[in-house]
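Sample entry (329 residues):
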Amino acid sequence: MNIALIGLHGHYGVVLEGVKLMEDVNVTAVWDYDRARAEELARWDGHREPPKVYDDWRQLLDNEQIDIMCSNLYHNHQAEVLLECCKRGINLLPEKPLTYSWAEYEQVREAVEESGVFLSMLLTMRFEPQYSKIRQIVGAGQIGEVVQVTSQKSYKQGDRPDWQRDRTTFAGIIPFIGVHALDLIRWTSGREIVEVMAYHGNIGKPQYRDMQNQATVLALLDNGASASARLDFCRPAAAPSHGHDHLRVAGTDGIVDTERTDDTYLRLITHSQPLTIIEPQEVEPQLVNYVRALRGETQCVCPAEDVWRITEICLRARDAAYTGKPQKV
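Predicted structure, serialized as C-alpha cells:
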C-alpha cells in the first residue's frame, strides 16, 4: 500500500513507525508547506524507497497511486484535502481535528459516506497501553458502574508557529488537544457524552494572540455520571517531559487511574482489592491496526463512527466556550 503524507504538522510519526513493521506498506510521496522539511523527511532512513517530494499536494494526488492519505495541516486547510481525496477514493487517516468548522464537518461527512473511503483519525492515545488497559478494566466491571471521569492534558507552550496564534487557521485548544482528553473519557469509560459546557481563554500570554492557553470542559455522561477535561499550555519549560497527562475513572466499586509524565503508572483499587500497580501489555500500533482493518483482518480501534462523534463533541464544547451556554451532543 502506498501512503501519502500531506503536511507535517502533527502525529505523522505514527505512520513512519508503522511502516517499519509492514513490508508491503510505504510512504511514497510527501508534501509540506516547507519543502526543506519534506525533503528532510524523505531522507529518513526507515523508508524502503525514498518518497517523492512535491511542491503541490494536488499534483501529488494527480501523479501518484495513493491508497492511504495522512494529512497533518493547518486546521483550516484540512477539509479541502479530505474532500479531494474522497473524490479520488483515497482512504483517510488524518490528524485531528478532523474539521475546523461545522460547515466543513457536514461536507466531509457527506463526502466520506458517499465515497465509501475508509476513515479513521490519529487519536494516538487509544494506542498507548495504559489507556487500553483501563478500557478493559472498566469494561470487565472491576470498578462497578462509572460515576466520574477526570482527564488532564498539560503541555509546554514553547515557541508556537504563527498559524496556531490565529483563530482563522487554528481550531482552538479544545479541538486541538481536548480531543484526546474527551475521547479517552468516552472510550475508556464506555459511556457516551450527552452534554458539554466549557470555558477557555488566553491568560497572561498576549504574544500568542488567539491561541488559548487553558480550557476546562465539563461533560454529562449518558448514565448521569459527570466528567471533566482540564487542558493547558502551562507546563514549565524546565519540566522533564513535554506533557503531563492524567486519567482517573471512579466507579461504584473502585477507582483506576494513570499518570503519564517522565514516569508513567497505572493503579487500581477496589473495595475487595488493595492498591495495585498494573503493568499493561503493549498494543498493536495504530497504522498496523488501520491497515489490517482496511484489509478486513481485524476491527479498527478508531472507527469512523468514533471520529464523527468526537469531532461533534469538540465542536459543541468549543461552541459552549464561545457562547457561554451548555450544548447538547
